[in-house]
Every structure is written in C-alpha cells, then in structure tokens.
Design goal:
The protein has six domains: about 140 residues, Rossmann fold (3-Layer(aba) Sandwich); about 60 residues, no CATH class; about 140 residues, Serine Threonine Protein Phosphatase 5, Tetratricopeptide repeat, CATH 1.25.40; about 100 residues; about 150 residues; about 55 residues, Arc Repressor Mutant, subunit A. The chain has 45 helices and ten strands. Helix 16 packs antiparallel against helix 17 and helix 34 packs antiparallel against helix 35. It is flat and about 100 Å long. The two termini are about 45 Å apart.
Amino acid sequence: MPTAWPLVDRQDELRLIAAALSSHGGAVLTGPAGVGKSRLAHTAAQRRHGVVRWIAATATGRSIPLGALAGYTARCGPDPLLRVQEVIHALLDGEAAVLLCVDDAHLLDDQSALVVERFVEQAAGAVVMTVRDGEPLPDSVAALCARLPRIAVPPLTTEGVGALVTEVLGAPLESSSAQRFFSYTRGNALYLRQLVTDEIAAGRLTRRSDVWVWDGPPRLSASLVDLLEASMGNQPDGIIDALDVLAVSDPVELPVLLRFVGSDVIDDARDRILISVDYGQVRLAHPLFGEVRRNRAGTARLRGIRGQVAELIGQLCAPSAVQTVRRAVLLMDSDTQGDPAFLVEAANAALQLLDLDLAARLAEAAVAAGGGRAAQAALATMLAFAGQGGAADTMFAELAEGGDAAERASIALLRAANLSWVLARPGSAETVLNAARDAADSCGLGPSYQALHASCRSALGHPREAVDMATAALTAENVDPLAAMFGYWALVCGLGDLGHVDRMTEAAAAGYELAATAPQASHLRFGLGLMEIVGLHRAGTQERIPDIANRLRQQSLDVVVSRSFTAVILGYAELCCGRLASAQRWLRESLATGSVFDAQSGVIRELAGMWLTMTLAMCGDLAGARTTDAERFRYFGDYSHIWRTDMLLTQAWLEAVHGSRSRAISFAIGAARTARTQGRPAQELWCLQTATQFGATETVERLGQLAAVVQGPRAGLAREHATALRRADGARLLSASNGYAVIGDTVAALDAAAQAVPHLHGERQRRAIATAHRLAADGARTPAYRAMASTGVLTPRQREVIALAATGLSNREIADRLVMSVRTVEGHLFRACQRLGVNTRDELITLLADGTAS
C-alpha cells in the first residue's frame, strides 16, 4: 500500500480554488478535521506556477508571537513597528509570484494572522488558507475569511471513498464495503486511511476474486483511537454521559436522552460538533466517536445504560418493528433478562427488516432464555433464511419428532423450503412434503404444500407441471405466504421457460407485492427477480431488466447473503445487455462476498462463477476464463436441472475462446437438445441463437418452429439471423444485427454484424465493420468479431486451426481436437501463411491476434 494516498473526487474544488486565486488572489478552505483540506491546498499549490510558502499553524505555537512564521524572522530588525513588513519581505524574498499557503489558520497567533492579512491587503501574493469548522478565529483571520471566497471541502462521497480505496489498493473495492467504510468514516479521508490500514493488518479487509472485501465491523487500533480522541478533545462529565448513551444507541430519541442529561448539556455537545439533533433524534457527529466510548467506558456501565435505554424506548416511543429490534438488541447485551416471547417477536421483526443474521441471533437468544419449541422453530427458520441450511435442517428434523399434527405439518413445510431453497435439494424437499401430505391436508395446509411442491418441480426441470400445480395452489384461500412466494417463483421460472412472457411478468408482479407485505417471504424476491430477468432475456424483452436489477439492489440490506445474491443479479443483468465490463465487476463482487459459503450453500457462487467465465470468454480472455472456470465448485445440487443449459453454453463459450469453433457449436446444439428434452422452448431458443453466433446454419428450421411458441422479439430475430447466415446474405445479417441492438442484446448484434462483413463489399462492408467495432467498444472479442480480421482471406477452418495454435496446442493436439490428420492441420497452416504473406506459425498467430490481416 502506498505511503502517499492520491487525491480523488476533488476536481470541482480544485477548479473553484483556481478561479478564486485568479479573481480574488486567495481562497479559504473550510471543513471538519480530516476531510483533506491540507492535501487539497497542497495539490492546488502544485498546479500553480511560482514559489509556494507553506505555513503550518499549531496549537503550541499559538501562544508565541509570530510563532507560525518563526522561520522568516531571522532578518528582522529591532523596530517592532517594521516587523510585519519585514516578515512579508522575507516571505517574498524577491520573487515576483508567491503563493502563501496557511494550514490551520484558526491556530495562528495574532501577529502571524496580522502578517497574513497585510500580505493580502498589499497584494503581495496569493493566499490559500485552511480553517477547521467550529473553531474560533483570530480577528485578522476572520476579516480575511469575510473578504476571500470560502470554499467548503465536504467529506468524500460513498463513490469517492470507493474510488480512493480502489486506487490505493490497486483493485476494486466491493460496493457494500465502500458503503460501510463511508458509514464509519463519514468520508473523512484521515480516518479512512487509518481504518483501511488497520483492517488490512487485522485481516478483515482482504482481496478475493480480484475484489477487496471488508468483513467488518472494525476493532479500533490505538492509532485510530488517538486520532479520534484528539478530534473529540477532553469533555465534561455531562457530555461524556450523553456520548455513552449514544454509544449504545445511535441515534436515540431526544426524550430518551433527556432522561440522562439536561438540555444544556445537549446544546453544549451540539456546539462542540460532537452530536447533531434533527427531527427529534440525536446522533453522534461521527459514528467512530461511539467506538471510542465503547472502548473507554466500562463494560458494566454500558450494560446498565443499555437496559435503561431499552426500557425508556418502550415507554416513550411509538411501537414499530424497528423499535422492537432496537429494544431487543439492547436487552441482549444488558443486565436485564430478556423475555423469550419478546425475543422471538424481535427475531420476526428483524426478518421483516431483512436483517437475517440479526434475526438468527435474536432467535438464538430466545432459545437460551428458555423459549422452548417455539423459540427453537424460530431459530431454525432464521438460520435457514441466513443461509445456514445444514444447521437449520438438523433442528427441523429434531422438531419434527414432537408436537401435534398441525405443528408437524408446519415444521415439514419449513424444512422442505430450507432443503429446496438453501441446500439446493428440491428432490429431498419433495420427499419431506410427500411424507407429511396427510397431516397437511388435515390442517388446511394442502394448497401451501402444493405451491412449495410446484417450485420443486420447476427446479427439477418440469416447467409445465410446475405451472399447472402453482396455478391451482395459488387460487386457493389461506395459502401460507412463504409457500405462496415459492408458488410465484415456480410460475415465473416455468412460464419463462415455456416462453409465456406476458403471464410470467404478471406472476412476478404478484410475487413482488406479496414480498412487500409478508416478512417471511421478503427475502425470496431476489430469486424471483433473477428468474424474471432470465425469462425476459430469453424472450428478448430486455428493456425492463436494468430496472428490476437496480430495484432489487436498493431493497437489499448489508448482509452477506443479500450482498452476494444482489451482485450476481446485477452482473447477470449487465451480461444480458452486453455490458461486459460492468458484468465482470458485479460477478466478481458476488464471488468475493459469497466465498464464505461452502459448496453445500453455494448455488449463488456457482452462478457467479459460471456467468463470469462466460463473460470473460466473450471478452476473448482465455486465461481469465480458464482460471475462473477452474475455481468453480461445480455444485448446483438438484438445481443443475434448470441451469444445465447455461452450464453447457458456458462450455461452448470456453471452446469458442479457445479457438474451437466446431466444438463450441457442438456444445451449444447439445444445450438446445437438453432444453428441448426438458420441454423448455425459451431456453432452447437461446441455445440455438448462440450456436448461430458461432456460425451454425443448421438451426434455421427449429428456430422457425420456436418462433410460433416463444413470445417476444428474440425468436423472430434469431430465425432471421440464422436464415441470413445460411444464405450468406450480408444485408439481412446487418438487419438482424440492428434488431438485436434494438432489444439490447449487444453481443448478438456484434456477431451478426461481424458475420455480415465477408458477404458485403465497398461502402456497405466498411459500414458493417464500423458497426461491429462500435458494438465491441465495451470489450467484447467474440470469435465472429476476431474473424473479421481475416475476412476474404482465410477459410473458417483455417481461422479455427490458427486460433487453436494461438492457445499453445501442438499440431497433433489440434488434429485430435478437430478429428483430422496432422498433415491436414499442417496444410491449413501452410496455405494460411501463403495467403497472408508470412513465413512462420508465430507470425501467423501474431498477425491475427493484432487484427491486421485483411
């Protein structure tokens, strides 16, 4: 990590400083301590021509006349009336253009402040001063601040924090980690630097999948505590009492805080910029102040305060899910014994707020407090929602041994949901549901069982059966909300596979509405959203995909499960739209944040790895695609049925980037055959289109049949694409390219345009080449695009042989892969060299890699 951190996100301030120096001969930079005023002044000075005099005022020098300017008083004479002018002459030292930079001008002694004021009045040079917010100013400095433009230096934004840490560490900082760094530091560059240094040293900020991820919260180092305490200063006991209340509950309601301290103490703390009061809530001015007090205050003292605050919140504040969770969290770490029933209520409230890990902690506390089977069932449920499926299944199995029929049926429903959703074992879930079917029917849970069973059918690759079961179940009354959400997932997944996109979007809308009103179903909206995106993409109705992905991102909270799932959704949405650089970023984030899961719970990680492999292959990154593919767990559980086509298409793209066009086509056609066997026409359509992008022409007839089955524009475009390719019709290939571009499938548009090039001439060919280059601007380097380099010169088989040679394969290995003789391979290479005017295999590879063959 570099010792000197760069300046980022400050271009606006630098422009304002330059303008102020030009128009007014000076500027005053204001802001809280640590935001980077001094660094900004340094950078502004470096950009200005001329001599710079840097003056650093200090608290110790404030009591000494001319203390800040002591280095310029050596040649001063005995006459005190001339001293100010003599110091100004020393600062100028005969130079025509001098910039005087005064850091922490609020700490200047009176005489030094007078020198600076006279320096400006005489237009002896330009001045840049930094002043800390909330500090009293010497009269001369105050006069200057009134005269010169004041430029507020705000803390870094979340984006600025992410950009700064990314530049320092040399790899992207994961998005939610950037958000949490911002939350802890409030964009204070000084605190950020120390916190990043400390967290790397502690092993909590680590690089995974080429992304830096922070597994906070922090534990403050002595260095950071010293920085914070210097900023907080020594405070009277009343303010310490207020800070300690906020250390256990930030924010806290004003009526609650007034039970601990008087209003005068609150006013004093606000004047010292230690707290803020807005709309009846009191907050720490900086969240790390609370960390300092938690480190300094005694454990017993804080436990007592937590119990008092929890009781006062219950007495003085309106009840809500948030208040219930706040009270429970405070009680867990207080001297007050928690009530099991209240802790279970709080766990459900935390689930409503999508804080899944906290919900599990609260349920665990309820069990420890003697909550019995109700608390144990709540804990098993929360563990499942938090991604700890193995532990949850063990608890559900034990609970299933007791209770009455209704309780056993409810437990079986929850256990089956966990088996299917978290452990990726819908087959096992079906077994559990079937075993408890009679009990479910006897207590009115039959439709709920059917809705959940429908999701298992869909996951196992039976879309039509799943749609029929879910439709029947969801028309019944009193379906359990969790089961109903699984039913909507089955509908969205099944209808998307069948190509019924209109009904699919209706089912998705109903599912989102349920997720907004049923806490136990809220977290399932992410799986619902992913399958809606898949269905929209397969149909070619992609215009809604970015909105769905971004909405889900906004709705997710900072917990590991949702971070990883949201990132994979965003990454796949970008991949669907051909924005490959952004897709790589989000998919790497998903891998990095999901790496805490083992293979058993790793379907999300598998999706991220699979789609990142595909993305890298589309970008022509053979090494990256190989590495990512090799690091995959290859564990989808029973969900391998619905992701089988994507798995085969990933292999197809790996073959394509490896240079084996014929094997890529074979894998894509095989994926289409699998989808057809499963009765999933929309998936089959996507596979056949991909084969066409690789150059297959045998897809025309089946694409024509699918166009009558699958809704949306993709079917017609893919048929037009395949027909034009078979007929070598460049104009129709360009038409297909334009159609793909309209629906947002940039990679397919690129391939169709590139495939048009050899079948066009003159201006039309140049236009097709320009179109392909424009569509490849985000990094796509597909086989069709790379083949443009040898258009009209090499045959497809010659290009394939050269591409394989470029990966390092010997002639024998190429022959084995393409099922031909070594002599035939040698012949292809020899004739390619003749056509391109080169003499060696290496020259041939280099020529095509550079794209200079034409």
